[in-house]
Design goal:
It is built from three helices and six strands, in the order αββββββαα. It is an alpha+beta fold. The protein has a domain of about 50 residues. It is a single-pass membrane protein.
Amino acid sequence: MLKFVLLVCLVLTVTQAVKYHKSKLQFAQKRSLMAKRQARICGENQFMCTSGECLPSMWTCDAQADCLDGSDEAECDCACRGEHKFQCKNGNCIPRSFVCDMFNDCGDGSDEVDCLCDPVTQFQCPGGRCIPIQWRCDGDDDCGDFTDEVGCPALHPDDCRDRMTLRGCLLMNDTSLPICLDDDLGFKYCRKFCKHCTVNPDE
């Protein structure tokens, strides 16, 4: 009886060892097949996305997701590389298209420094940041040092004109809190538009 039990144990052990070896062999073959498949599908200087597409290798880690699943931007180091990237002073990486777009995308404002502003539509702050021209003299510190509010003419209470553009007044009035319903703001920024003039401009 003992011999029979030992024989059964030996057969089971051998069977498990064969299964394990077969499974390990199949895994190695599958991995080799996947590597060959990737090499066959994507060229030598290409990156295969997890979602299946092939991209030029230089498109990886350029702060622009080119794969459908974004896998070309996964596991990237913090160094910016590629023409589509911009290195912020604080170490962050942003797409180059975000530079000089009037938004602080870096978090330290370094993407808005030394920008060439359009003198017709923009105002240049001393730090180099460009802001929309209608933000000048609007009562808000948009430059961060109040330079966009320096040298602004004060409106006399009898002066019937707006400090904002007509478009600006239209946009501010088309919100959940219309500017024309706020007597103080309406009088300060959109006096003529909101009909808050103290005198009739037609007289």
